[in-house]
Amino acid sequence: MSEDIILDIKDLQTSFYLDDFEVKAVDGVSFKLPKGKTIGIVGESGSGKSITALSILRLLDHPGKVKGGEINFKGRDLTTLTDKEIRQIRGNEISMIFQEPMTSLNPVYTIGQQIRETLKVHQGLDKENGTKKAIELLKLVGIPSPDKRVKQYPHELSGGMRQRVMIAMALACNPDLLIADEPTTALDVTIQAQILDLINDLQDRLGMSVIMITHDLGVVAETCDYVAVMYGGKVVEYQDVKSLFRNPKHPYTVGLLKSIPRHDTDVDELEPIRGSVPSPKDMPKGCRFAPRCPFATELCMEELPSLDHVEGESEVRCWIYTDHWDGDAEVKAHGPKRVAQSN
Amino acid sequence: MRAEQVNNVMTQKTDHPFTRSLKDFYSKLRKNKSALVGGYLIIILVLIALIGPYLTSQTPEAVDYGVKLQGPSAEHWFGTDHHGRDIFTRVIHGLGITMGIGISATILGGIVGIFLGLISGYYGGKLDAIIMRMMDILLAFPGILLALALISILGANLRNVIFAVAIFAIPTFARIVRGSTLATKKLEYIDAMKALGASDTRIIFKHILPNILSPIIVQASLFIATAVLSASGLSFLGMGAQPPSPELGALLSDGRDFMWDAGHIALFPGLVIMLIVLAFNIFGDGLRDALDPKMKK
């Protein structure tokens, strides 16, 4: 098992140092990603999911800093590499695609020039071979008449096409890991599905691992093998995708699932999670979710639970699953999902 | 969009990218009449400066006291000065010298300013603070005073005029470039390039610089006007081109003593200086409008 793990993040801590206080954007995140699999990192805005991704590639801007923890990628700890070493990994072994395809391409260069750029940086390909490879890559990501597209500028392409180009650039050097930071958020629904299919398909063909960062559980269901749910800079639940949808454990996950429409049950009104993400300035002392949690007890408010194994591979950070919890007996017996449903 | 336009888009031939952006640029520029007039004026002035000296029959330094202080005539279009030199010939030769100083000072100062602005804006922090405070110090001097001071130290000749004018070009370019760099480095495609493993040098010069060229070009065009004025001003004060060089400011200075008796000596070089400055200014203004996406229509 262990040699198949391509990425192993241990207790990652990333903070932003502002003038008078420290914002712990990512606070002790750990997860493992097996080779060829997809992990989804789910959470609301401000939960630290994008910062986790940026920390892996060390792309944080000042005043953000990885404070502690390990990011083991193929046996190397990325946090200890020099700038030059990490540059050789970026785009080559780990690639990233971004949320905004409309602005993620440089407007002054043609598509071909931009794809060639990556190839030149990492493989030193000249113009002729680079263009050939660029056309191949565009074909791979399903762009029609790629030989014409290489000569076009970004503004001549639609959002979906641009995201395909971004994917082509990211795949130029056959990376082992692709980080997709909300790759479909800015696209309309039909294009979203196409892009997700494309990522899935390419993953199968190229055998790469994917970290899918999203707030959309639909995207998770469609693409991921494992899911880490993040809240307030911490992972609150880690499960394989089927278990997560069938049997969500953390009250936050339960709330998330209840706030999306389903086609198999008839509900008049979706139920939102009340309240909002806590400000990093005054994080709750106990469980980060406690102030919004319908089942919270005094214990939840006072002390932070740890991320523990419950069944098999599933991990959850919640007092309900411990012996210390003294809240509603029904919740304890049947889990928050059943109880929430019957209400 | 009308059907034929759609059709045009669908069937449009794909030119080489560079030709296409040039065409695009020209069509934008064409809509702006003043920029176009300024542009043509610059082209004409440059052509005269380059070719003119070979077409005049006289040499600028040829002295003929028999015809001194004559007004414009068929033989001497702009008249003659107190040494009987043909002013038309001198102005034609001086045009090249003055524009040459203005353009080379702008290029020289521009390159240094652009470089400082780029690294200052991209890296930020202490480096930024140090560079920009140095620029503030330079900006605190009135440009012409700084140039005068430098030339009095270095000695009065054309090379030092270029150098002095270039020095006060640096802060204006550095500021504009720094501002644009700050805005551009935050854009997603710069992050995307970083994520693809590009080095800082590559990002700065290959990805940021081409995207901030428009304000640089506009600034360069406007600064050439300033540089021409400063350069001829310095020569007028005797701190630049030395007699008998026909630099326009020096010609103006020659005419100073004869303003009431033979006004044409100062008039023609003055007019040409004005024309150069006007051409670059209206071209720069028009260029700014043409290149600014917010000003479309």
TrEMBL record, chain A:
Its main location: membrane. It comes from the Bacteria. SUPFAM superfamilies: P-loop containing nucleoside triphosphate hydrolases. One of its GO terms (biological process) is peptide transport. GO terms for cellular component: plasma membrane. GO terms for molecular function: ATP binding; ATP hydrolysis activity. SMART domains: AAA. The keyword Thylakoid does not apply. It is found in: Cell membrane. It is a peripheral membrane protein. Signal peptide: none annotated. The keyword Glycoprotein does not apply. InterPro entries: AAA+_ATPase, ABC_Ni/Peptide_Import, ABC_transporter-like_ATP-bd, ABC_transporter-like_CS, Oligopep_ABC_C, P-loop_NTPase. This is Peptide/nickel transport system ATP-binding protein. It comes from Virgibacillus chiguensis.
UniProtKB/TrEMBL annotation, chain B:
It comes from the Bacteria. The chain crosses the membrane at residues 35-55, 101-125, 137-155, 161-177, 212-237, 265-287. Keywords: Cell membrane, Membrane, Transmembrane, Transmembrane helix, Transport. Pfam families: BPD_transp_1 (PF00528), OppC_N (PF12911). One of its GO terms (molecular function) is dipeptide transmembrane transporter activity. GO terms for cellular component: plasma membrane. SUPFAM superfamilies: MetI-like (SSF161098). The keyword Lipid metabolism does not apply. Residues 95-284 form the ABC transmembrane type-1 domain. This is Glutathione transport system permease protein GsiD. It comes from Virgibacillus chiguensis.
